[in-house]
Design goal:
Number of strands: 9
CATH architecture: 4-Layer Sandwich
GO molecular function, one term: catalytic activity
Structural class: alpha+beta
Protein name: Endonuclease/exonuclease/phosphatase domain-containing protein
CATH superfamily: Endonuclease/exonuclease/phosphatase
Shape: globular
Strand content: 25-35%
CATH topology: Deoxyribonuclease I, Chain A
Radius of gyration: 16 Å
InterPro entries: Endo/exonu/phosph_ase_sf (IPR036691), Endo/exonuclease/phosphatase (IPR005135)
Largest sheet: 4 strands, mixed
Number of helices: 3
Length: 161
């Protein structure tokens, strides 16, 4: 599914959460692609050959971030994952640390935060969603998701007979 989406949309990079990991590497991707993982292996970034300069900045427990240069402009790319059972303040601390230390550069955060909020399409609103919304407002982040966006995951089903 990931390869099909990459072929259809031709991105320079992919932000992934909960990828299949084997030997500390994202499994099932071509060796010509570069990839980085958070310390937990739950958040990753994959760059395609079209993505020119990439530099790994840091791997934290729940986040991975790299710096890319495109058209002579630097961008920080952040991939994050927060388990629904984890302490949500930890992910917010990691994101705050990263966004504070990039000295005003443009950044993009992509993540699976397991945080419900009506602003991004949930009917209910949990404390994690409220905390994430507060972080977004405090940092003046522009939310790219629309509340009517379809889900971006599928559930794999297996049958044992």
């Amino acid at each position: 599914m990931l390869l099909k989406a990459a072929q259809q949309h031709l991105p320079d990079l992919l932000l992934v959460q909960e990828p299949h990991v084997k030997d500390r590497k994202i499994a099932g991707i071509s060796k010509c692609l570069k990839s980085w993982l958070s310390k937990s292996g739950k958040a990753g970034i994959i760059t395609l050959p079209t993505c020119s300069t990439q530099v790994a900045l840091s791997a934290k427990e729940n986040t991975m971030n790299i710096k890319i240069t495109k058209n002579s402009k630097a961008f920080t790319i952040i991939s994050s994952y927060s388990s629904p059972y984890a302490n949500f303040s930890e992910i917010l601390e990691e994101l705050t640390d990263i966004t504070t230390n990039i000295n005003g550069e443009v950044y993009l955060i992509g993540g699976d935060f397991n945080a419900h909020n009506q602003r991004w399409g949930y009917r209910d609103e949990g404390s994690r969603g409220k905390q994430l919304q507060e972080f977004i407002a405090e940092k003046h982040i522009f939310l790219l998701n629309s509340s009517d966006s379809p889900p971006t995951n599928t559930i794999d089903k297996a049958v044992l007979t």
